[in-house]
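Case study 2.
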Amino acid sequence: MALPLPDGGLWPYIRAVIIPDPLLVFDRATLRQRRERAAGHWDQRAFLKREIATRLVERLDDVRRAFPLALDLGCHGDEIATALAGRPAVDRVIRSDLGLAFARRARGSAVVADEEFLPFAPRSFDLVASAMTLHWVNDLPGTLIQIARILKPDGLFLGAMLGGATLWQLRQALAAAESEIEGGLSPRISPFADLRDAAGLLQRAGFALPVSDSETIDVEYADALALMRDIGGMGEGNLVVERRRGLARRATLLRAAQLYAERFTLPSGRIVASFEVLFLHGWAPHASQPKPLAPGSAARRLADALGTTEVSAGEKVERSSR
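Prediction:
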């Protein structure tokens, strides 16, 4: 045990050891700053959020029930609220965002709230919808648990977040350019969740009937530098805590743009950038929801439905020669 000096410091031969938080992947203080800047020119950068919000809200077309009070978690420029407008199933929308500037832009009731520490009371909302914000959460299972907590019984959560295959072309070009110019690699694009884990995370958070799927949105740009400017303008640049600080080398970025053009140029002469979007769907538990049948309670055998012969697990099946 190290004994402190009277002034509260440590003896010269003792060095303080700082153990990094294993859950601290993203720099959310920087995220807040970027959100504030992005809000000033959001109308020119909102196309991707608008498209994702529209696709997310369309999933309500298959739901036959009302949602009197909804929460738009990470509202940006009101894209979800706009997509919900005119739908009789949703009466009122509360907006929340990490950035004050985005909350001020909202055309309705809005609060500044951190997705990792939701300030809402349990069982407050009938619907929670979130688009393009949960991929920056450090403790995603913890945030999903909080979302389940603020939903009323039989309330619905709809989420859309960027997935692991997002900007795979840019990842390849930057990795190759940095290895060639700088002789090494550093985290240039933030890691995102994988579809295989999404439904499992919903189930762990306590959601009933969890469903996840993914879609890919391809966007064309004049060149890779225009793509990078757009990402920065959206506030979606690299936020990995261990990222390299300071400005990237100009030579590295120019080489990455050249490699991108060589590998991913379309016949039109423009480049393509792919955004993988994970869609999450889960319900707060309620007694009225369907439950899985108990093992052995089936009324018919699977073999009868398939028109085959049932074979016990202990019997050996002999192969027929042809």
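DSSP finds ten helices and seven strands in the chain.
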